[in-house]
Write a structure and sequence with these properties.
5 helices; mainly alpha; single chain; Four Helix Bundle (Hemerythrin (Met), subunit A)
């Protein structure tokens, strides 16, 4: 499967069930995730440059929660680590971790688009 190891299909299926099996609504939620995530990454980059640990933490927290909702559990774990860096103010290691999370997001987006298209 195109998404194995990237998306936990059970979590995504549970979300579909939670929205009453409305695939169109789920697609709208996915589109929102696809537009919000790059903005969150951008916010984290800007916060990192500015040394704003709290803004960094908030953006990482949103990415963590949003990703978990769609079954992107690896990305959610990475975002949790970024959130912890923001919480403790230890942003010195965040650059590499942020780049890793962005690479994982690219996989997540491709996987979710595949699922969206092929079911």
């Amino acid at each position: 499967m195109e998404y194995e190891g990237v998306i936990d299909r059970e979590v995504l299926d549970n979300l579909l069930e939670a929205v009453g099996g409305d695939g169109e609504f789920l697609s709208e939620l996915l589109e929102t995730y696809f537009s919000d995530s790059p903005q969150l990454f951008s916010t984290m980059h800007m916060a990192l440059s500015a040394g704003n640990a709290e803004e960094f933490r908030r953006a990482a927290h949103s990415l963590k929660s949003n990703s978990a909702n769609f079954g992107a559990l690896n990305l959610s774990r990475q975002a949790k680590e970024l959130e912890e860096m923001g919480k403790t103010g230890e942003l010195d290691k965040a650059t590499g971790s942020l780049a890793e999370a962005e690479r994982e997001y690219d996989k997540v987006k491709s996987a979710l688009e595949f699922i969206q298209k092929h079911g």
